[in-house]
Every structure is written in structure tokens, then in C-alpha cells.
Amino acid sequence: MKKLLICLFLSSSLFAQTKTDSLEKVLLTTPASQRPKTLRELCNAYLSTDIRKGIFYGRKALTEAEKLADEEAIMRCNLALNRAYVFYGNSDSIKYFSQKALPLAIKLKNDSSTSRAYMGLGNAEFYKGNFESALGYYLQGIPPAEKANDLFQAYSLQNNVGTVNMRLGRRSEAEKSFLQVANYFSTHKLPKPSDIVSLGYVYTNLATICYISNRYKEALDYANKAVRIGQQQQNGHLLARSYAEQGNAYQKSDRPDEALAAFLKACRAAREVGDESALIVPSAGAGSIFQVKNQLDSATKYIDQALAVAKKFNDKNYLAEIYQLQVQLVSAKREYKNLNLYEELARTYRDSVNNETIAEKISETQVKYETAKKEKELLEQREQNFRQRTWLITLALSLLALLLLGYLYYSRSRLKQKALLDAAVIREQQLGLNAVIEAQEAERRRIAKDLHDGIAQELVALKLGFNVLQNRLGNVAPAEAQRLEDLSSQLNDSCTEVRNIAHVMMPPTLEQHGLVPSLEMLLRNSLEPVGLQTEFDHFNLPTRLNEKTELGLYRIAQELLNNVLKHAQADKVILQLYQAGNNLIMRIEDNGKSFDFDEAKRRGSMGLLNILSRVSTLSGTYTSEKGEPTGTVATVRIPVD
Predict the structure, then answer these.
(1) Any idea what DSSP says for residue 565?
(2) Which of 180, 153, 150, 175 has the alpha carbon at shortest distance from 165?
(3) What is the Cα gyration radius of the chain?
(4) Which long-range contacts link 496-504 to residues 24+ away (Cβ below 8 Å)?
(5) Is there a shared CATH topology between the 196-274 domain and the 513-639 domain?
(6) CATH 3.40.190.10 fits 513-639, yes or no
(7) Sheet harboring 621-626: ordered strands across?
(8) What phi and psi values does residue 624 have, to the nearest 5 degrees?
(9) I need a surface site. Which of 291, 316, 475, 524 has the fewest CB within 10 A?
């Protein structure tokens, strides 16, 4: 089979044979600053045996590095994930992590890591089939590797350059690159197992070049060298690809049994390490041999497996040949129902590989069959009808779009007008509410002034008159004088009551000293006389608030405390007043019966409506919640500048 096996190089750390068990034990006692490094080593160690677990540890390493804000660790973790996703076959993830690593490597002036990031970007483009772009990235990665004297990395990139040239059909340039890399590795000491594995990949690439050049003996020699290295290093990825090349060479050398054994070994190795991309060639090869041996069930199994993976990676080279195998298979099984479909798919992908577009195929078909004048006229008529239908459909869609835009504009205008009207109504309601409350307060001031300056003064004068009369009757009529003293005492109580009423309606303390002293007096005069325990906490307050805010909060507090006296049956009240951010917060809590705010609002309680009206005029919010374990917590939030 003329298969083109892709063997891209990765940086040397990808093939490190670290003992994962010991690393996982070390991880338990590793300090936070060293965890990214240990997790990254676990990622690299698992890639040759369990890709998913390697990716898991790579992502954990990146998370730990980002928590530490360690740019170098973040860069190395991104490079580790870039290499991991090469084996997983996810080009988008390869590109993502390479792009994250590249600017950090350049910023840190780490030439070796810069080269590896360029390699990752090249690998991403390669897997997408953008070979010219991949070649550009690989070539960009060579100078920084040489600058860092990282010759292994430089030759790894040179190997990838050869792989791209091989894919672009430049066989001589590809073989030249592979031989340079092989010569470097074979003439230098390779102390690391990863370096030895890399030499195995070079041999695999050379085997591919010889195979597609019909030099099957040389292809088998290189494949055998790669297999030996894979077996020595116990590297499943290398074994999967080198066994596949070995099978190709055996098959072309008319040694089908040995070819089948090699293909099956390749499939087993690829499955063991989770390398799906390495399954295509050996599955297709095994399927073709089983078909020749007339073992059609086994042939179906392996050809279907090859087709599924080739579809996943959208490899047109493999798809063309696998669909041709499907054609042969259904013919052998006499399942002619799908024969035409597979023939068409094989032809389409084969044409795609040969850079023949669908448009060119249609043109050739038209040239072949449009010889008759009548058919040509019919085709022109069809095209004209199509253009007319297209024009009519376009016109209809344009009109529909215009109508839709007009309707949307009209709806938007209506909504805008409604919003303006609603805002005006709310503004008028707010102005009306403010006017009512201001009139109410003006009336309170007038009544309080009349009580204090009128009736209260007259009662005081009357009391003084009683005192004078009492003194005169003291010696003449003691019994009458005592009666007069009782009346004077009663009159004094009336004076005090009138003064208290005046102060409640308009407390002088509010104007003279501000909100805090007024609330203290309110608690003292309204709750303490009936035996309620009170607490008043205030902090973080401005010296004075504006008159409207002070008066509004005072009236709200009056109403809330009045509700506590009437309904709560409490024995303790806590009042808090403080500023938090741009809000002034007043909080009144009692330990009595809970207050059902929703029920009172539904019934239209006058006291609650008064509170909500005053809160609204101050542009604030009011909430009422059940206390723990009993009681009610009322909270008022007023915005302040």
C-alpha cells in the first residue's frame, strides 16, 4: 500500500521514561513552589503509556503555575501540553498552548523554548493539512535552537522539515533532511533514552521515503532498525509506526504473513498508548491482507477501523485508498448496494488528493456530455430559470428583511415612547408625593408652633395665676388652698403633655442638634417609659445630613417604633444608624412577634404606606425580615452623596 506515514519530532523531554509511581509519591510531599515542575514531569512521563493521564497532569501543572504567577513555569507547562496534544491528535489544542508559550519564551529570552513553541505551531498546521504554513514555522524554529546550542532540537526541526517536504511530494529534499538528522544522531553519543527514540523516528521516516520510492529492501532495513529501538526503549508510539512501515515493506516484498503479523503488532501498540493516528496504516494494511486471504469478517473489522480514524483526522490520502479497499471488500462480499457509493467516494478523494476540485470535475462532465445543441439549450434554459428564481427569492427576502426592520423600528419607537411616558408618570407621582409630604410637614410645624407658642404659653400663665391665688388663700382658707394646689398640679401635667405633643410633631432637637440626639430622645421618651429596654448604636456618620433626609428618617423611625409599641409585644428594641459606602442605613430590630410585611402591604396598612412613601421620596429602599429566633428586622437604605 502506498501509505504516507507521518512521524513528527517532538522535543526530547516528551520521551522521558520517568518512573511515574515514584514521581506520584514525591508529589505528596512537594512544596507548592515545586509542584508545577513535578506535575510537568509526570505529564511527560505518562505520554508514552497513557496520553489522557499525561494531559491531566499537564493541566494540573499549568493551574499550579498560574496560581504562583511564575511566568517561566507557565511557559514550560504550556510547552508540555503542546507536546501532549501532538500525540492526542488535537491540532486546535496544540496551536492554543503553543501560542500561549511563544510570547513568554520570547519575553524570557529562552531561545530553546522559543524554538519548541515554533515547533508546536508547525505541528498544529501540519495536522490541519496546511503544509506550507507548517514548513514556515519549522524553519523559524531552527535559528533560536542553534543560538541556544540545542542541536538536538535543531535536528528535530530539520526532521519535521523533511516530513513536510515528503508530504508535499519533494522526496529528494525530504530524504536529504532525514539523512542529515540520522547522520547527526548516529555519530553522536545519545545518553538519553529520548534521543535514542528520536533516532528510531528518523529511521521510520527514511523507511517511508524508500517505500514510496519503490525501494522496498531499504525500507525494510530502516523499519527493522526502528523496531529494534522501539523494543529496546519500550516505546509504544515508535513501535506502532515502525511496525506499520515494516508491514508495508513486507507486503510489497510478497511476504503477506509477515506483513500481517507486523500490521497487527502496530495496531496493538497504537491502542495500548492511545495513539489513534497511528492506527490508520496498519488497520488498512491488515484489512487488505485479510481480504486477500478471503477472511472477510476480519477484513471488514480492520478496514472499518481504518476508515473511522481517517475520517476523524480528515486525511484525504488515506480516505481515498480505504474507500477503494471498501469497493473491493463489498465486491468480494457481493454486497452491491453500497458499491456505487464507495466507488464515488474513492474517486472524489482521489481527485481531491490530485488537486482536482469539484468545479473542475463538473466542467469536464459538461464538456463530455454537452455535445448536442438541444442539451446545451436546455442547460442554458435551466440556468436562466435558476437565475430568475434566485432573483425572485432574493427580492422576496429583501422585502421581508425590510418589513422586519420597519416593524422592529416601529416597535422600538413605541417602547421608547412608552418608557418616556412611564418615566413622566413616575416623575409626576414622585412630585405629588413630595408635595403631600412637604405640606404635611408644614402643617405639623404650624400646629406644633401653635401648641408651643399659644396654648402652652396660655396654660403656663394660667398655672402662674393659680400659684398666686394659692399663696393668698393659704392663710385665709387652707382647705381651699389645698384644693387649688391639686388643680395647679393637674394644670402643670397638661402643660407638659401639650409640650410633648408639640415636640413629637416637630422636635426642636432635630433642627438644633441633628438626627442622632433626636433619635436618642425619641427612644427615651417613647419606649423607656413603658419599660422597653433600648439600645442605640451609631457610627461612621457625617456631622450633619440635609434637612430632608434627617426629617424623613426621623418620621420613619417614629412610625416603626409606634408599630413596635402597638403590635410587637417586645421587651427590647435595638436601633442602628450608620453609613456603608454611599448608603445611609437605619436598622430597627425587636424581639417580639414577627411582622408580616407582605400581608400588611396587601391590606394597605396606613402606617406601612406612610413608611414606603417617605422612603420613596428619599430615593431609598425598605425591607422587613423575620428576626432570629423571633421578632422583626426593618432596614432602610438611603443613598447619600
Answers:
(1) I
(2) 175
(3) 46
(4) 498/451, 498/452, 498/455, 498/456, 498/459, 499/451, 499/452, 499/456, 500/525, 501/448, 501/451, 502/447, 502/448, 502/449, 502/451, 502/452, 502/456, 503/448, 504/558
(5) no
(6) no
(7) 533-539, 572-580, 583-590, 632-639, 621-626
(8) -130, 125
(9) 475
Angle at CA of residue 599, ends 597 and 601, nearest 5°: 70
Q: Answer for the pair 251, 273: CB distance below 8 angstroms, yes or no.
A: no
Q: What is the pLDDT of residues 356-385, one digit of tens each?
A: 433 333 333 333 434 455 666 677 788 888
The helix (H) or strand (E) run that includes residue 608 is: helix 606-617
Contact 316, 353 (CB under 8 A): yes
How many residues are listed for the chain in this entry? Answer: 641
Tell me what pLDDT residue 184 has: 77
Q: Which residues of 262-291 are buried (b: 16+ CB within 10 A; e: fewer)?
A: bbbbbbebbeebbbbbbbbbbbbbbbbbbb
Output DSSP code: residue 16. -
Q: Cα(2)–Cα(25) distance, rounded to whole angstroms? A: 47
Q: Which amino acid type is present at position 304?
A: D
Q: What pLDDT band is residue 47 in, cutting at 50, 70 and 90?
A: confident
Burial class of residue 447 in the structure, from the number of CB atoms within 10 Å of its CB (0-12 exposed, 13-18 middle, 19+ buried):
middle
Q: What local confidence, expressed as pLDDT, does residue 1 receive?
A: 40
pLDDT in tens, 99-110: 999 999 999 999
Name the band, by pLDDT with cuts 50, 70 and 90, for residue 432. Answer: low
User: What is the SS3 assignment for 49?
Assistant: coil
What 8-state DSSP symbol labels residue 564?
I
For residue 3, is pLDDT > 50?
A: no
Is 80 exceeded by the pLDDT of residue 544? no
- Give the residue extent of every domain in the chain: 196-274, 371-506, 513-639
Joined together, the cell numbers standing for residue 12 give 526530547
Query: Could you tell me the three cell numbers for 403?
Result: 418589513
Please give the Cα distance from 458 to 36 (Å, whole number).
89
Residue with cell 401639650: 498
Please answer whether residues 621 and 601 qualify as being in contact, where contact means their C-beta atoms are separated by less than 8 angstroms.
Answer: no
Cα 622–Cα 623–Cα 629 angle in degrees, nearest 5 = 150
Question: CA–CA separation, 83 vs 79, rounded Å?
Answer: 6
Distance between CA 231 and CA 235 in Å, rounded?
7
From the number of C-beta atoms within 10 Å of its C-beta (0-12, 13-18, 19+), residue 122 rates as buried
CB 146 within 8 Å of CB 155: no
Write the CB contacts of 147 (distance below 8 Å, at least 6 apart in sequence).
Answer: 111
Which residues fall within 8 angstroms of residue 184, CB to CB, at 6 or more apart?
151, 155
In 214-238, which positions are buried (b, 16+ CB within 10 angstroms) versus exposed (e)? ebbeebbebbbbbbebbeebebbbb
Residue 566 buriedness (CB in 10 A; 0-12 / 13-18 / 19+)? exposed
Q: State the architecture of 196-274 in CATH terms.
A: Alpha Horseshoe (1.25)
Query: Higher-confidence residue: 378 or 533?
Result: 533
Give the mean model confidence (pLDDT) for residues 445-468: 66
Which stretch of DSSP H or E encloses residue 624? strand 621-626
- CA–centroid distance for 245 within its chain: 43
**pTM confidence score:** 0.44
Angle at 558 between CA 555 and CA 561, to 5 degrees: 150
CA–CA separation, 246 vs 588, rounded Å? Answer: 87
Whole-number Å distance between alpha carbons of 538 and 317: 81
